[in-house]
Amino acid sequence: MKSNNQVSINNSLVKNISKVLIIAYKESTEQLEKIFTQAGFECEVLRQENKPEYQNYSHSYLCLMNHCRAWETAATETKPTLIIEADFVPVFGIAKLPLQFDPNQSNVGVSWLYTCAPQIYSISPQGHAEGFSVSTVAYIVTPLAAKTLLGLADEVTQKHGNKNYSSWDSTLDKYLRDRNFKNYIPWRNYGEHGGAPNPEHHQHQLSKTHRADVLYGKLAFTPIYAANQKNPVMAFFSVRFQARCKGIARLLLGRFLRPKIVQNSKTPGKLIRFALFRHFSCNRG
């Protein structure tokens, strides 16, 4: 399976990404900028403006506005753009990790590098996993897909307005697939969501925290959720243990790979191997 092999230089992220856009509000981004810049990426920080009228906007809508700005930039590029939020913590050597789709494929939409509640639909001949994820913590978007997603922003605004909560990030996959794009999830997560719990999610009966179920390697620095604790090491291992257990539980309960997907697949063996080896094999990236 290609996603397990040592990556060639030509297929590495750093060779196939136009730039890294870091979405932030007041958070410090120096550490992220340093990591990506030293790895050879061009970085740009997009900070949310602080306007009086934004005071009444929902956090979810402000988040959408921030990503919309990123999509506007990504739509003008000639190569895919990596968009990350300020609380993303990459793994060591992320620049050399493989692109999770064929760069010559014309209908690629988004490729998540960090996933939340992921699912797989199929495995391409090259070993890439077409699938679904909810989070926008870290993902790659192609220029055409970025231009298309601007239409999603308009739909959300018309349907929910700017003051109401919307789980717009869970609709990216469907919106793009309905327009003949294919979206991809990684062999393993290229980093962690290091942020604090989101109270707005909790208010709408959603999990207020989400973490990477399985990582591609060691993290480049300690996430905020652990760094701010009395015992950062214990806090980190506790969170990671829970995340791994949750990921394995989703696999065993048929939520990562749905039984109907396997039954209807022409290559069920590929799907099952990808799902199992994702959790139960050593990192080789």
From TrEMBL:
<keyword id="KW-0808">Transferase</keyword>
<dbReference type="GO" id="GO:0016740">
    <property type="term" value="F:transferase activity"/>
</dbReference>
<protein>
    <submittedName>
        <fullName>LPS biosynthesis glycosyltransferase</fullName>
    </submittedName>
</protein>
